[in-house]
Write a structure and sequence with these properties.
With 394 residues, the chain is an alpha/beta fold. It has two domains: 4-303, Arginase, Chain A (3-Layer(aba) Sandwich), CATH 3.40.800.10; 315-390, no CATH class. 32% of the residues lie in helices and 20% in strands. The chain has twelve helices and 14 strands. The strands form two sheets. Strands 1, 2, 3, 4, 5, 6, 7, 8, 9 and 10 form a ten-stranded mixed beta sheet that branches. Strands 11-12-13-14 form a four-stranded antiparallel beta sheet. A hairpin with a 4-residue loop joins strand 11 and strand 12 (330-337). It is globular, with a radius of gyration of 21 Å.
Length: 394
């Protein structure tokens, strides 16, 4: 399958990028699909940028379709991160006649890139495109975890996929390839008690804004567990990101988003991240697009600093700790990376058939505090919830 037919080339010169002998910028390390040039050879195991300028699925945020190229204007001119190798920019998805056509194109292109072990950075566009990214994994028959940095749970009951219903659209798919959804930084006054209860009933993980801000190590572990990360720019407070359809005085600071993006970039499990709902028409002095570019820069920096420390894939790089919880007649196995000091905990699976299906998800990222909790003869809540999900009926 050729994906070139779905893509429109871009001109880095339009983003103010000029090669320079005295200032190294990120654009120097980007191989872009440009007008009149051959379509780039798809890399294997690389990092690929992909713009999706479609906002027909947005709710109250028309104009976010303009974001990809304006974000590139800042991104291409930032300094090269340490250890940054070359990355590929395949330009922009050509919007389809209907939103469903754009969704199909995104799914086809992302699936082709994932199949070659690439990591994809999606520049949206509206957050309903998360469903398009999910469809790529479905095409490849991969069961995945999704993490959303989002002040809301996007599960509104609507007839069509939208930026407020994409999660519900994914949940309703049959067969379903979503194993776990994790919300990072929801704000209770936007979701309400019933929605929080719904997340609990679905055995999804959801962490309030203040809870995440008090413990960024927890955010690192949550994002390290995700295959697909979806970022709604409205998760950032209005003072740092005014350019969106639903700004709020409360939310993450811009530097906190950058920190979480670096966490996601360093995760060798994360294979697709989408940054959505940035609206240049509502922006102030390009503040939001510049902040979005800097957040993406941190993901890129994290990606090129990835370390092979997942105990499931590289057991020689980890130290194992067996913790016996006498009061619960239970033994839990923890792992600590020798390369990064990051922690994992093993989740037993009692059904051999399910073990084969869920094998990529049975090594759960955790924190040192989870290990300490087990040492105090307490079952870590994160482990227990995950254990129940792994061993519940299909």
């Amino acid at each position: 399958m050729t994906i070139e037919r779905y893509l429109a080339p871009i001109s880095p010169a339009d983003f103010g990028y000029r090669p320079s002998d005295y200032a190294e910028v990120l654009g120097d390390n980007i191989q872009a699909y440009t007008p009149g040039s051959p379509f780039p050879e798809l890399p294997n195991g690389g990092l690929v940028l992909l713009g999706v300028g479609d906002d027909r699925g947005s709710i109250g945020n028309a104009g976010c379709a303009d974001a990809p190229d304006i974000i590139r204007t800042s991104l291409y001119n930032l300094a090269i991160p340490d250890y940054c190798a070359h990355l590929t920019d395949l330009g922009n998805i050509i919007p389809g006649q209907l939103p469903e056509d754009t969704c199909f194109a995104v799914a086809e292109v992302v699936a082709a890139l994932l199949d070659r072990h690439n990591t994809v950075l999606l520049l949206g566009g509206s957050q309903d495109l998360t469903f398009a990214a999910y469809k790529a994994y479905e095409t490849l028959h991969r069961i995945i975890n999704i993490a959303a940095i989002d002040p809301r749970f996007d599960v509104e009951e609507t007839d069509e996929n939208s930026s407020r219903s994409w999660l519900r659209t994914i949940i309703m798919q049959n067969p379903n390839y979503l194993f776990l959804h994790t919300n990072v930084g929801y704000q209770t006054y936007f979701v309400g008690r019933k929605m929080v209860q719904l997340m609990d009933d679905l055995k999804f993980d959801a962490f309030r804004l203040g809870e995440v801000q008090r413990d960024m190590a927890r955010a690192e572990a949550l994002l390290r567990n995700a295959d697909l990360v979806s970022v709604d720019i409205s998760a950032v407070r209005q003072s740092d990101a005014p350019g969106c359809g639903t700004p709020s005085p409360h939310g993450f600071y811009g530097e906190e988003l950058c920190q979480m993006m670096r966490f996601a970039g360093m995760s060798d499990k994360a294979s697709c991240l989408g940054l959505f709902d940035v609206n240049p028409r509502l922006d102030r002095a390009e503040q939001t697009t510049a902040m979005a570019a800097q957040a993406l820069w941190h993901f890129i920096e994290g990606f090129f600093n990835r370390r092979p420390d997942n105990p499931r894939l590289n057991p020689e790089n980890s130290k194992r700790y067996l913790v016996r919880l006498e009061d619960h007649n239970l033994q839990i196995t923890f792992y600590k990376s020798k390369l990064s000091d990051r922690w994992w905990v093993e989740v037993p699976c009692h059904d051999p058939d399910k073990c084969e299906i869920y094998s990529p998800h049975l090594m759960l990222p955790c924190t040192y505090s989870d290990y300490q909790q087990a040492m105090n003869n307490e079952i870590p809540a994160l482990w227990w919830n995950y254990f129940q999900r792994v061993n519940s009926p299909l």
